[in-house]
Write a structure and sequence with these properties.
There is one protein chain. By secondary structure, this protein is mainly alpha-helical. The protein has helices spanning 2-30, 51-58, 62-93, 99-108, 114-128, 134-138, 145-156, 160-168, 173-184, 186-201, 205-210, 219-224, 234-268; strands spanning 227-228, 231-232. A two-stranded antiparallel ribbon has the order 1-2. Strand 1 and strand 2 form a beta hairpin. Helix 1 (2-30) runs antiparallel to helix 13 (234-268), helix 2 (51-58) crosses helix 13 and helix 10 runs antiparallel to helix 13. The longest helix has 35 residues, at 234-268.
């Protein structure tokens, strides 16, 4: 009976993996098909070609879109890691009046849908001339309430005596944060960094609103424009999507351990 249960579990896991992996394989194979061949619904390409990739790379602005997405995702991730960790440490380890009230205010922003924030963000961007700029793409994600919550929960688990030892040794408060506390919460930093990078790499709504010129588009916005009233260039969409997924795959391959730990730890730390 035990072996039957084990076999059933593995069978379900394999089935789930196939269901999840099949669209990815279909995308890769479709990206190798000539445009007329896409609509015959054959799984394997009959005449594989790299022409779709050549067209995406050399006849569109995809390389610039790729660069824009990479800049936005990397800078936003670095900003979130620093500021969220700093605020989380402050709320967890420093005593000051209104500390809990500030934390509740930060958490309350999680209840506001992003769609409701787009209009004030855009009004502010227009007023200060941030539209169609890197800063306009960056500023909404430079600090996140979820990251503050996550880092605060981790910093609360650190022994206060360890931090006091750093203060006795002559470290400033920022030195205690940077040299003592921060290295001890690296799993949380890794998880937060991965989630932030993936979220900004795939962001669509805000870049669509704030970007106007073709050279400032990010990958999701640029790829979406391959579909229009004149038709949908499925061959280019599949090729561009296959290229766009490469950084995500690299992040997963190099940091899959941290991703799994992050998913587990964000659920148990309190």
């Amino acid at each position: 009976m035990k072996h039957l249960v084990t076999f059933s579990i593995y069978a379900l896991l394999v089935l789930g993996s196939v269901v999840m992996f099949f669209p990815f394989v279909w995308m890769l194979l479709t990206s190798l098909k000539p445009f007329p061949e896409i609509f015959d619904l054959r799984f394997w390409p009959q005449a594989p070609t790299l022409e779709n990739y050549r067209e995406v790379l050399f006849k569109t602005q995809f390389p610039r879109w790729f660069f824009n997405s990479l800049v936005v995702a990397l800078l936003t991730t670095l900003s979130v890691l620093f500021f969220d960790a700093l605020v989380g440490y402050t709320l967890a380890k420093l005593r000051f009046p209104g500390r809990n009230f500030v934390f509740v205010l930060i958490l309350s922003t999680l209840m506001v849908p992003t769609e409701m924030l787009v209009i004030p963000w855009y009004v502010m961007s227009t007023a200060y001339g941030w539209t169609d700029t890197y800063w306009g793409l960056l500023f909404p994600g430079l600090i996140s309430a979820f990251g503050v919550f996550l880092m605060r929960q981790f910093f609360q688990t650190l022994p206060t005596d360890l931090l006091d030892a750093g203060r006795i040794d002559g470290l400033s408060e920022f030195g205690v944060f940077w040299r003592v506390a921060l290295p001890l919460v690296r799993p949380a930093l890794a998880a937060l960094g991965i989630f932030t990078f993936l979220g900004n790499w795939n962001a669509f709504l805000w870049p669509l609103v704030v970007v106007q010129s073709p050279q400032m588009r990010t990958i999701p916005v640029g790829v979406a424009l391959f579909s229009g009233e004149a038709g949908t260039a499925w061959n280019l969409i599949m090729a561009a999507s296959s290229l766009a997924v490469l950084p995500v795959l690299l992040v997963f391959l190099f940091f899959q351990r941290q991703i799994i730990e992050g998913v587990v730890l964000t659920g148990v730390k309190g």
